[in-house]
Design a protein that fits this description.
Blueprint: E1 6-11, H1 14-24, E2 40-44, E3 47-52, H2 59-67, E4 71-77, E5 81-87, E6 93-98, H3 100-105, H4 115-129, H5 135-143, H6 149-159
Antiparallel strand pairs: 1-3, 1-4, 2-3, 4-5, 5-6
Helix pairs in contact: 1-2, 4-5, 5-6
């Protein structure tokens, strides 16, 4: 069985991200304390990543309001599918679906996650975040497939301009 938790990426320190995630209702994950998520790491350039067990509805928007910066979350369905939710402090938001073929096998309606809308939202999000996007890389991640949704999510985050190294 794979990962059924998720990942949040925000412009914040690890400590801030943990605190903000706990306040926004994100659940505890492996390696974490009660509330506020689990394993976390600094990504550089003021960004951090946090792994969590579950996220509340509207979690990215709630976390963005708390951080005052753009946030992107990925919720995983048994490592097979990734559900992207991204938000900016100014109220912009977008959602996407990773591993679309597998998602269809799960019965997830693909029409709720149009690729072009996600691409446009992702480009707006990167501009608000002050990042340099790779539009072809974003589209490839939004339409591509891997054995693990986490691998597709890493490709997407890299294409959004985040340094995961």
């Amino acid at each position: 069985m794979g990962n059924s938790g998720g990942t949040a990426v925000a412009r914040a320190t690890v400590e801030e991200l943990r605190e903000f995630a706990a306040g926004a209702g994100f659940g505890r994950a492996r390696g974490g304390d009660a509330g506020g998520g689990g394993e976390a790491a600094e990504l550089g350039d003021g960004w951090a990543v946090l792994h969590f067990a579950d996220q509340p509805a509207g979690g990215a928007a709630a976390l963005s309001r708390r951080t005052g910066a753009p946030v992107i979350t990925v919720a995983y369905l048994d490592s097979d599918v990734g559900l992207i939710e991204a938000a900016t402090f100014a109220g912009g938001h977008w959602k996407a679906l990773l591993n679309r073929d597998t998602a269809q096998e799960y019965g997830i309606p693909l029409d709720r996650f149009p690729v072009q809308s996600a691409l446009e939202g992702a480009l707006d999000w990167t501009a608000a975040a002050g990042l340099t996007a790779d539009p072809a890389g974003i589209r490839a991640a939004l339409t591509g497939s891997e054995a693990f949704a986490e691998d597709v999510a890493d490709r997407l985050l890299t294409a959004l301009g985040l340094d995961l190294a």
